[in-house]
Design goal:
This protein is α+β, with helices and mostly antiparallel strands and 349 residues long. The chain has one domain: Clavaminate synthase-like (Double-stranded beta-helix), CATH 3.60.130.10. Helices cover 27% and strands 20% of the residues. It has nine helices and 16 strands. The strands form four sheets. Strands 1, 2, 3, 4, 6, 14 and 16 form a seven-stranded mixed beta sheet that branches. Helix 4 packs across helix 6. The chain starts with a helix and ends in an 18-residue tail after the last strand. The structure holds 2-oxoglutaric acid and fe (ii) ion. The site of 2-oxoglutaric acid has 8 residues, from strand 15.
Length: 349
């Protein structure tokens, strides 16, 4: 054990948990852009009556965004997918009306009409990036928009509706294929990008980010081989109601000079001989603090969710309508999506 500890200490020193300018892009809308976008989206917003119409209007919404935003902003939004080194894109000053913002829901989700501009912006962003939005039948009732907020009845859940415990390092939907790098056949991939949009923030509970490539590089060659092999069982997250574990999965995938990672609440080694490396990985991740992603109301952040892990600390219980409230949307390249419903095109099997 003493050796393992020394070994881990050495390994931890090799891991850089921050981002450099190449990995993270921050865009801040000018007051003119914010205003122009608000007025053009408000005009369309009456037609958005449910998630299906929101989805069907995605091209129109993206067109409005293209004309209200500067060329520079649109280019930066598009560059997020084209630039392979970019992992995180933070955008500030989206229109958000804090005076009329409804209370943070702690039970039933707020109706779409109360958050319509934010959801239009999220869908428009995915469209500008040419990454279709998606949801899963067995998570979030199949809905596109996930209200990331502490729910009274789910405080203890290890999910974006919990808060009583911290949410440790993870990628979302880790039990499914990794979008863009692993083949999808009968089941669709996990999301490639996550976008969070902040409606209401509270001090001291940022989402934390941790790039994965240094973690991978810090292992020896033989350990890397184990972690790249189909040697692990991955259990679905607590928010997935009915899916089983996936067997014979690698934790890391490497292609050219890039590394992707799946990681979630419960991962087991398929054979005892892989236990030591898995345990070491778990110990290392538990020690790494990562980088905070601070948000203001009207900030969005999109990240390549298998190239950096995310986490969240405990959220102080607060059910008075003033609690932390983000909206989350998944998107993925088209080949990661397996349509499951003729009338709900964004649902992936
Ligand atoms: O609440 C957060 O900061 C992150 C939540 C999360 O992990 C998710 O929505 O997937
Ligand atoms: Fe998550």
């Amino acid at each position: 054990m003493k050796n393992l500890t020394q070994d881990i200490k050495m390994q931890l020193r090799k891991i850089n948990t921050g981002f450099n300018e190449v990995n993270k892009l921050v865009t801040t809308l000018s007051p003119g852009e914010t205003k122009a976008l608000a007025s053009s989206l408000i005009k369309l917003s009456d037609q958005v009556v449910d998630e299906l119409t929101l989805y069907r209007m995605r091209h129109q919404i993206a067109d409005e965004m293209r004309s209200a935003l500067s060329c520079k902003t649109v280019t930066e939004i598009e560059s997020f997918v084209e630039n392979e080194q970019l992992l995180v894109h933070e955008i500030n000053n989206w229109p958000v009306d804090m005076i009329n913002m409804v209370p943070t829901p702690a039970g039933k989700d707020a109706p779409l009409k109360d958050i319509v501009l934010a959801t239009m912006i999220q869908v428009g962003l995915s469209e500008l990036r040419n990454r279709p939005v998606l949801s899963y039948p067995s998570e979030n009732n199949g809905q596109l928009i996930r209200h990331v907020t502490q729910k009274y009845a789910k405080q203890n859940q290890l999910s974006s509706h919990g808060g009583a415990t911290n949410l440790p390092w993870h990628s979302d939907v880790a039990h499914r294929p990794i979008a863009g790098v692993e083949a999808t056949e009968l089941v669709g991939a996990g999301p490639e990008h996550l976008t969070l949009f902040a409606n209401r923030v509270i001090h001291g509970t940022p989402t934390m980010f941790l790039p994965v490539s240094d973690i991978f590089e810090s292992f020896s060659e033989s350990e890397q081989e184990e972690l790249l092999g189909n040697n692990f069982v991955i259990y679905p997250p607590e928010s997935f109601s009915s899916e089983g574990a996936s067997k014979h999965k690698p934790i890391f995938v490497r292609k050219e000079d890039k590394v992707w990672m799946r990681y979630g609440g419960r991962i087991e080694a398929e054979e005892q001989k892989f236990d030591a490396t898995l345990t070491k990985l778990k110990l290392i991740l538990a020690k790494l603090e990562g980088t905070p992603q601070f948000m203001l109301p009207g900030t969005s952040v999109t990240w390549k969710q298998n190239r950096i892990l995310h986490a969240r600390s405990i959220i102080p219980a607060q059910f008075n309508g003033a609690g932390r409230w983000y909206l989350r949307l998944y998107s993925a390249s088209v080949d990661g999506i397996v349509p499951s419903h003729p009338e709900v095109p964004f649902l992936s099997r």
